[in-house]
Fold:
Amino acid sequence: MQSSQTTDFDAIVVGAGFAGVALTHYLREAGLSLRVFDRAPDIGGTWAWNKYPGAATDSEGYYYCLTFSKEVLEEWTWSKRYPGWEETQNYLRFVADKFDMWPHLQFNTEITRAEYQADRGIWIVTTGDGATHTCRFFISGMGMISQPQIPNIPGQTTFKGPCFHSSRWPEGLEFAGKRVGIIGAGATTVQMLPEVAKTAASVTVFQRTPNFVMPAMQKPMTPEWEKEIKENYQEIIDKCRNHVFGMGFNPPSGRTVAESTPEEVQQVFEENWHGSFRWVFETFDDLLATPEANKAAADFIIEKMIKAKVEDPDTAELLTPKGYPLFAKRPPLDHGYYEAFNRDNVKLVDIKDYEPIVEITETGVRTTQNHHEFDIIVLATGFKAYTGALEAMDIVGEGGQILRDKWQDQSSSIMGVAVAGYPNFFMVTGPQAPFANLPTSIEQNAQWISECVKKMNAEGKQVFYPSATAEEEWTNLTAEIHAQTMMAEGDKVNSWMMGANREDRKARVLIFFGGAHVYYDKLKESSDAGFPELAFADTAA
Ligand code: NAP
Structure:
């Protein structure tokens, strides 16, 4: 039985990236009518926005993908280990073409408000042009890292040239021969710098906190490698499903640094130095568990990446992370970042201790020591992760509470998929979901959501009410686990993984660090048990 209320769509989804595409598949399969809105002009989500030079996946492409179609896995070919944004966007186009998804997708349309109508058990969704649409289920597929964090630097609007956030790179921007200033030194800058430095007259990176940058070791896909992948795809999918970060990596090695000699540790580190985050998960099982093991890994990375690659010792010293463990900030992958600092046209400015930024001027960036002249300024200053996109619009639940207000001090949820007080509202990878290879998590969430609506339709239920008790339990469990991890030190270094990079909110627990595989088990248990975290009703209250 469908809703007793007539709505424009059974489901409205916001976001036409991996989540929107996965939801289109799973919800259509569940028999729902749906519309996916996106303010971007094209499919891709993250990959429709992050078009800066060098933007690429940090997961290897062959498991940074959706798995619901064996045919797509068979037919699609990745050109390299870490595909760039164009290729990833083309992959999503390929999926949308193959499954005729385009009629469901509406671009250039921002959702500004979604309000639950308690008496009717439906959502009224408003777009930027004031149009309204009704639906039974309102679903966020807006992505964990999509809402830009714009810094509050005085004078930002006075700069005469282009000054923009990295995820809003102007199409066709000519940077060859130009003086480019990049504020921020996170994963985005690590990818962007080597590309921009190739042709720019100069690039200056303003760094506050150095990162542990691990090697990507990009390489082309060969026919032999592709054959091996395609012959073993189910095994790769199973690895992702059973991995602590949803990655297609081998299971824990059974080795620990604690139980190995220093020589053995160095040998294992060396033998596994083949690029990607793999190294962290396939060498020793205690790298993220004990300070001693973590330090051994951190020292190895510093030696291999910074000391071996950066020629100027002062620059090397400035690029060396200090005072926080590996993974308290999400480590970027290197595509020539450190070597770029050996170029004559690249400069690193320490804005933490030596010359903090004072203001942006008409012609550049003024620090306490210098005025740096630029033609282009890039704000590679990160994102309001996990909650930012959900807080940017008015999501109004029962009793008129706006989600942004509910999350003022703590961003509670039930497994990152539902929120107490917000009936018939789902999130894909919302706060308190794990941080993982996103397509894996997205698909697990989309399956949980589609199973839930299938159950409701089969049993004639119109509304689900997420339980406040279940939310409290999940929030407590997430906080308890978080406190035991090294990621809890992220607030010392403004880690977005704790929202500690935001100027408008205090740091908080945003991520379930109990293991993505454990989380996927919990979703499955919930679905098998009939979703005990939700109270179902035949009609709206
Ligand atoms: P980020 O890691 O949060 O880095 C932002 C940078 O801007 C940091 O260096 C930060 O310094 C600096 N910053 C922030 N506010 C500032 C201010 N007011 N003044 C001066 N500096 C400021 O952001 P990101 O590089 O965009 O990456 C975010 C995440 O997006 C990544 O960790 C990753 O998960 C994802 N991402 C993924 C890929 C990929 O998979 N290929 C690529 C890019 C990004 P502090 O560190 O001192 O705060």
